[in-house]
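Q: Can I see a sequence and its folded structure?
A: Here is a first one.
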Amino acid sequence: MSAGSRVTSPRSSVRRGESPIATGTRRIDFLLLAVAISGVSFSAPLIAATAAPALAIAFWRNAMAVGALSPFVLLRGRAELRGMGRRAVLLSMAAGAILALHFGLWLPSLSMTSVASSTALVTTTPVWTTVLLRLRGRRQPGLVWAGAAVAFAGVLMVSGVDLSLSTRALAGDALALGGGIAAAGYVLLGSEVRRTVSTAAYTFVCYATTAVALLVVCLLSGVSLGGGYTGQTWLKLAALTVAAQLLGHSLINRVVHGLGPSVTSTAILLETPGAALIAALWLGQTPPVAAYPALLVILAGLVLVIRAERNTPKPLPEPGV
């Protein structure tokens, strides 16, 4: 996108004065974001249904994604990799390390509490994204805070965060919440790198770092990476890689450049009702009746964040982005 397609007047909205190409690109980004949310909604149910250790699942979904991306990136995108620059590479690796932490915290929680509760807490990402942006000195419009709060209220309607006295369930809740905080750091680092780096190059470095970090953890902790896995388990790992990793996380990495971290992370809240409904149909974990109106509440919160972003002046992009 050229610099000329951005609005420079501080009083004008993103729409007013924006080129038709820019408007079309934004619409495509929203469509891709919808596909990404659909993909990540399969993540928790697939993980819960896969007979493999949580850390092994986390490793394989990233390792398989790197394997799928390698032919394209190494054969056609070597120039992009070489041209990333030291700062971009380090930030991409940091994002990969934080993504490994996200998986390392969240996946074990799925065996300790329900899919709905775990997903609800891990998708608190927009709240932490807004907080981290504020700590970095970026003042967020009140509408962003309000939208995040409304959307999170919808998440609580879906799951009714686990308030049982079960120590195991509470520990699972804590792990999922930690995973949500880690995801906020991942989204913010990704949005920074994507200002100057292509989706393919960033995703390749990020996932490779995540896979290596998780491999080290698995080896040190003695986690089985394949011994005794059935063909059905490998099939579920492949489905998880395609749906949640390649279509989910990769498309999120693609659209965060155009939509920004606030809109992108708030939209991830839609994973909660999506995962709850899939778990109900597939695993028999029936969501509460509140799951259905909660979807509308989450959408309402997302609309508030999008409106705030539309009315906030955007900085000019880096040359060549």
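Q: Show me another, different protein.
A: A second, unrelated one:
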Amino acid sequence: MTTSFEERQEFDQPRDKVLRMFSDRGYFERKYAAVGGWDIQVLQHETDGRRFRIKCSYHRRPGGDVPAFARKFIGDSVLVTQEDVWNLDTATGRLEIDVRNLPMRIGADMRLVERPGGCANVLQWKLHCPMPLIGGKLEQALAEEMRERAVEDLQVSRRLLATY
């Protein structure tokens, strides 16, 4: 089974400014710290003017609403590794997330689209857990936590956007 959902991050700034933020190493370090991450490390980082790529890892606590069966996999703190890749010409990207000890593939295609008064980052999420019987439940639990955390992530990103 695969769980899919769409997320829209609305910004009241032009697409170019948001893309500048999304292609800045410092943005990721500050964002992860602001949402409760610790031991933040930039594992890889590259940009050539047309393509931006960054891979970071950090620890964080899982949300309080994580079901008991899911906590057996993730524990009291999780090590998250996330890689973001942006095509700066087309304002499209891809992100992949790995949560240590969680047997799941997590990723999203991203595109920054213009809208009146700003832009939106549209993310098409896919979560896949190949475990029989509980895979779908684990996908749903994580998708719900991701939706809840997206609210805080967007607030932090909007605050940080003011510095660009």
